[in-house]
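Q: My labmate handed me this sequence with no annotations at all. I'd like to see what the chain might look like in three dimensions before we decide whether it's worth expressing. Could you predict it?
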Amino acid sequence: MNESICYQQLAQQIEQWAIDLGFTGFGICDTDLSQHEAAFQQWLDNGYHGGMEYMARHGMMRARPNELLPGTLRVISVRLDYLPPDALIVSTMKEPTNAYISRYATGRDYHKIMRNRLKKLQQKIETQVEGLIARPFVDSAPILERPLAEKAGLGWVGKHTLILNQDVGSFFFLGELLVSIPLPVSEPVKEQCGSCVACITICPTQAIVEPYVVDGRRCLSYITIEKFGEIPVEFRKAMGNRIYGCDDCQLICPWNKFAQASSEDDFKPRKDLHSPQLLSLFAWDEATFLKRTEGSPIRRIGHERWLRNIAVALGNAPYEEAIVQALKDKREEVSELVQEHIDWAIAQQQEKTNSINRKTLRMLKAVERGMPAHQ
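A: Here is what I predict for the chain of 375 residues:
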C-alpha cells in the first residue's frame, strides 16, 4: 500500500469503489466466527441440510475464512438489491393456474454479476496494496456468508435466517471479498425482530422449527430447487403453485415494507417467468427450457425437476379438463420420476371433480326435496 494512504482512508475508498460498481451495501468484519460453530454443527447433526452434502463436506472451514484463504485478515461484505418492480404484490400466488417463481430468480443469474463486480473491486484494491491476497465469493465456497454480513453491519439475521436491514428489508444478494489487510471493521447493528413471529407462522411447511433455525428438508426453496428425486407427498399440497423457490417468509416480514425496487436491469423479470401460466411452462420441451432459462438461475434444476415441480402445481390447481389432458399427454414422454408426480397430480384433479360432483348431487337432491339448494 502506498505509505501516504492509511487503512482508514483505504476502507473509505473501497466503500466508494463498491458503490460506484453498483453495490447497495458495504461492510467489513474480521474472520472470527467461532461463536457460530456450535450452532452450525448442531444444524448439521440434526440433518437439517438434507441432501446438501456440500454443507458438511468441509467441516468447520465455513466458520473459518482464514482457513479457506490463508492470510485472510478481513472480509468485505457487500449487498446488491434485487427486488423487481411490483414484486411485493402476491397476486400470482392467488392465481393457482399461474406459476409462482421466487422473486430472485425471475431475472438474470446474480452469481456472475456479483462475482465480476467483486473481482473489479479486488483489482482496484490491488492498485493500492502490493502483494494483496484476495478472493471473491458469491455462493461459491464453504463460507457462512450471513453471519459475516451480520458482523459487517449489513443487517441482522432474522428468525427466518435471512439477513434483514431496517432500511431495505431482505430482498438482496450477498457477496464477500476476502482480503489480507487489516482494514478497520464495521459496527454490527442491533437485532430488531423483537417478538414478531410472522415468518414462522406463515411458512407453508413449518420449516422454521424454532426462531433462527430452518429445517432445510421442509423448506419449499430446498424442495423445489435443491432436492433431487421425489418430492415428499406430505409437502406437495403445501407447494401450491410454487414451482421454484418460496418467498412467503419475506413477503410477510414487516421490514420488507421498506424494500425498494432494484434499478438493475438484469434483475427485471423476464416475460416468460414473471407470472406465466402453468400449462404454458409444462409444454416446454428440454430445448425450449434451456433456451428460455439461459442466463437464469432456474436452469440449474434441469428440465426433469422443472416438470416435476410443475406437475405438482397442476395437481394443486382447480379442476380443469385441459389440465388433466395435458398431464396425461405429457406422461408418455417423461421419466419415471416425473410420471410419479403426474400420476399424483391426476389423482388430485380427479378428487376435485369427484368433490364437485358430490356437491352438485347434494344440491340436486335438496332441490328435489323443495329445500334451498345451498343447504
